[in-house]
Amino acid sequence: MISRLLATSSFTATLASALPGLVHAPHSSALLARSSCSGNTASTRSQWCDYSIDTDYTTEPVDTGVTREYWLELTDVTVSPDGVSRSAMAVNGSIPGPTIFADWGDTVVVHVTNSLSTSLNGTSIHWHGIRQNYTNQNDGVASITQCPLVVGESTTYTWKATQYGSSWYHSHFSLQAWEGVFGGIIINGPSTANYDEDLGMLFLNDWDHQTVDELYSSAETSGPPTLANGLINGTNVYGEDGDSSQTGTRLAVSFTSGTSYRMRLVNAAVDTHWRFSIDNHTMTVMAADLVPIVPYETTVITIGMGQRYDIVVTADQADVADNFWMRAIPQSACSDNDSTENIKGIVYYGDSPGTPSTTGYDFKDACDDETANITPYISKTVSSAQWNDLETASVSRNSAGLFKWYLNSTTMLVDWAKPTLEMVTDNITEYESDDAIIELNEANQWVYMVVQTTLQVPHPIHLHGHDFFILAQGSGTYDSSTVTLETDNPPRRDTAMLPSQGYLVMAWETDNPGVWLMHCHIGWHTSEGFALQFIERKSEIASIVSTSTLEDICTKWEEFQGDYSIEQEDSGV
Ligand SMILES: *[C@@H]1O[C@H](CO)[C@@H](O)[C@H](O)[C@H]1NC(C)=O
Ligand SMILES: *[C@@H]1O[C@H](CO)[C@@H](O)[C@H](O)[C@H]1NC(C)=O
Ligand SMILES: *[C@@H]1O[C@H](CO)[C@@H](O)[C@H](O)[C@H]1NC(C)=O
Ligand SMILES: *[C@@H]1O[C@H](CO)[C@@H](O)[C@H](O)[C@H]1NC(C)=O
Ligand SMILES: *[C@@H]1O[C@H](CO)[C@@H](O)[C@H](O)[C@H]1NC(C)=O
Ligand SMILES: *[C@@H]1O[C@H](CO)[C@@H](O)[C@H](O)[C@H]1NC(C)=O
Ligand SMILES: *[C@@H]1O[C@H](CO)[C@@H](O)[C@H](O)[C@H]1NC(C)=O
Ligand SMILES: *[C@@H]1O[C@H](CO)[C@@H](O)[C@H](O)[C@H]1NC(C)=O
């Protein structure tokens, strides 16, 4: 096996264009045409064949009968997205990796091959925000739903596109997502606002010239390091504008006056909260994560790690200038050690881009969420409970030595070689406290949870397998006698901010059997154990799991981990 591994290890890819100048974004993204009907047009985006934006995808199973099949290969690469070369890991040689396209109701089959033959990293791929309705085993979380996939092997993830909109896939093994193992997911369906053209994904990343694996020990001992740069859709410059030593290229997006463009923002950073804007243009926001919302207009949008927004921007500023800055601005209120300020792309009218001289919108540096602006288009009410009985999980950090994060007094430490799903199918009921397991055994019950922190650090909280309702989100200590919980169509999504020295009150229903992780989406914090897992409807799980797939991957992993003496130095997720 080893000779085969070495044979592929010389593969490298360079992302930045070898020529100086600007990267031109392709104008028309080739969205795959829906096979069974014509979808919608620029002026009828709320329609979708036999369905529409009024169909509730959480209750209405839609089945096109179409299967979309993809092959993705992970390799160790050398990249220079800002003109500075470093090692990284990529999907099919590019960062971001290929976008997965499907239509609402399709079945998506993705074959993932681990060819990380230089780094000898295991892997698992998580389909962020995808509900995995009764398909928990395809959630792709190392130590939870599978063992890591070894180098030289492939595995297949199969899931139904029960939702539609914009999301992303990323590695859920170690810090690999922030080594470059991620890409977009676009599920075509209706939308609450019209637009002419779809420009596809727009990733916002922080980036350094050392890898996250190299930086991890300093993150653990001294706290989050300051990163050197950031990328907009995988590219940026490095250095000051006008300085001859500046390297790299900026993303440049061509606008035609009068056309409206859909863009799918993703915060894929390891530890940066962004404010995004395009000078002098207004955005219409029409989806938050995979949930369509009543459209609202804004000039600057705040986006936490793991969150997504679908925006429409109309090219209506050609009389103001030819070139405009597109800005991704790190919010220092979220992290003292954020990346630099020169993270910008260009929107241009005319034949080719030039250097903009436009001024950015005013904004307040803050670590807030868009919650107050978000009204889900399909209205839902949360059943009320005995609000004084809410389950509480508190966030804390150990004082000395290494930074470890506690959620409800537990720092998660799970074993790559013993995924929770295997414990469930093996009928193991004795859990260790650092498994951080909470059982939710009753079907179709509401779960209410308060996550709170007294520390001055905000956290993006992500739940797998569900969209959760945001009943309250605020600063200070949660007090059930003074805080009013919003139960009438509150925002629901898969990632929301726990404010600094504040609380987040979440609710969801136990309608999806499986083992689901809940964690802080700051990469360092996931690795430092800031996570809980829910075993939901345990008695129903074995019947939806392939134990042979589970065991096959685990047997190979145990052998591989032993052969190469691979040490687990993180939480396991
Ligand atoms: C989720 O799966 C269950 C069980 O197969 C099924 O009854 C339900 O219709 C599915 N929901 C959706 C929205 O597809
Ligand atoms: C990714 O690369 C594999 C070969 O390693 C190829 O078969 C596949 O078509 C590529 N996938 C995409 C989506 O480009
Ligand atoms: C993954 O690869 C990186 C880069 O070679 C290395 O630093 C890291 O230790 C590896 N991680 C694991 C868990 O093997
Ligand atoms: C960002 O990159 C993705 C994948 O490489 C591409 O499909 C998309 O069109 C790009 N987005 C923009 C706005 O250029
Ligand atoms: C974080 O930022 C502070 C203030 O700029 C600086 O003193 C400190 O060295 C930084 N920490 C790291 C780990 O980079
Ligand atoms: C463009 O936006 C800036 C910042 O908001 C503003 O000061 C300026 O007046 C705008 N220019 C025009 C021509 O609208
Ligand atoms: C968190 O820990 C407290 C105290 O041990 C316990 O009462 C509570 O039920 C736990 N919360 C959850 C969600 O498990
Ligand atoms: C687990 O328990 C179920 C129900 O009692 C039984 O059918 C199954 O064989 C057990 N599995 C193992 C691995 O012991």
From TrEMBL:
Residues 1-18 form the signal peptide. It catalyses: 4 hydroquinone + O2 = 4 benzosemiquinone + 2 H2O. The keyword S-adenosyl-L-methionine does not apply. The keyword Transport does not apply. InterPro entries: Cu-oxidase-like_N, Cu-oxidase_2nd, Cu-oxidase_C, Cu-oxidase_fam, Cupredoxin. CDD domains: CuRO_1_MaLCC_like, CuRO_2_MaLCC_like, CuRO_3_MaLCC_like. SUPFAM superfamilies: Cupredoxins. Its cofactor is Cu cation. It comes from the Eukaryota. It is an enzyme of class 1 (oxidoreductase). Coiled coil: none annotated. Its EC number is 1.10.3.2. Keywords: Copper, Disulfide bond, Glycoprotein, Lignin degradation, Metal-binding, Oxidoreductase, Repeat, Signal. Residues 75-190, 201-348, 419-538 form the Plastocyanin-like domain. PANTHER family: MULTI-COPPER OXIDASE, MULTICOPPER OXIDASE. Belongs to the multicopper oxidase family. This is laccase. It comes from Canariomyces notabilis.
